[in-house]
Automatic annotation (TrEMBL):
It comes from the Bacteria. The modification 4-aspartylphosphate is found at D51. One of its GO terms (molecular function) is DNA binding. PROSITE patterns: HTH_LUXR_1, HTH_LUXR_2, RESPONSE_REGULATORY. This is DNA-binding response regulator. SMART domains: HTH_LUXR, REC. Pfam families: GerE (PF00196), Response_reg (PF00072). It comes from Deinococcus aetherius. Residues 1-116 form the Response regulatory domain. Keywords: DNA-binding, Phosphoprotein, Plasmid, Transcription, Transcription regulation.
């Protein structure tokens, strides 16, 4: 994991905390987005813990560039701010999660593990913003999205998975809710995306609203 934050004291404290957890291996640190790109290229971390408001290059731009250059790297935002522009900018740039710095250590560690599995991790207050934005966008996007119906009908189980996916549930959370294994959920998610003809979970969520599943 690569820890990126311009506040040295916070960054060092975070590294010290994470270093005590056997499931978290910190391979490097950076004080701004440009340094993050350089360190990621050299160290190939699985997860980057990214602050947003930093000098030289902010976290949103760094996330977009990092995902373009290294699509296998998962970016988890950890910031003080949850303004709409920060949230939507980070998620559009390719971050798989968005947490605020007041989270507990246990929540942060679990979020890092989820991010490594490419599962979406959102602070509850952030998730509420995202769902509200989906609702707004669906009013505009639904006609275009549903110009052609899905080539294959979703099974009832796939509809259940889609409903949970659309409100930001991770594969683990879906598995727990539906009493399935994470591997089975992953297969269902893949099938859902394929049947809906969409590329990612965000587009699938828009389709879910357009289909009246939420």
């Amino acid at each position: 994991m690569l820890v990126v934050d311009d506040q040295a004291l916070f960054r060092e404290g975070l590294i010290t905390l994470l270093s005590t957890r056997p499931e978290c291996q910190v391979v490097g640190e950076a004080a701004n987005g440009l340094e993050a790109l350089e360190r990621a290229a050299a160290l190939a971390p699985q997860v980057v813990l990214m602050d947003l408001r930093m000098p030289v290059m902010n976290g949103v731009e760094a996330t977009a560039r990092l995902r373009a250059a290294h699509p296998q790297v998962r970016v988890l935002v950890l910031t003080t701010f949850e303004e709409d522009a920060d949230v939507y900018g980070a998620l559009r740039a390719g971050a798989v999660g968005y947490l605020l710095k007041d989270v507990s250590a246990a929540t942060l560690v679990e979020a890092i593990r989820s991010a490594a599995r490419n599962e979406t991790v959102l602070q509850p207050s952030v998730a509420a913003k995202v769902v509200a934005e989906f609702a707004r966008l669906s009013e505009v996007a639904a006609p275009a999205l549903l110009a052609e119906p899905p080539s294959e009908a979703l099974s009832e189980r796939e509809r259940q998975v889609l409903r949970l996916l659309a409100v930001g549930a991770s594969n683990r959370e879906i598995a727990a809710a539906l009493h399935l294994s994470e591997g089975t959920v992953k297969n269902h998610v893949t099938n859902v995306l394929g049947k809906l003809g969409v590329r990612d979970r965000t587009q699938a969520a828009l389709q879910a609203r357009a289909l009246g599943l939420l």
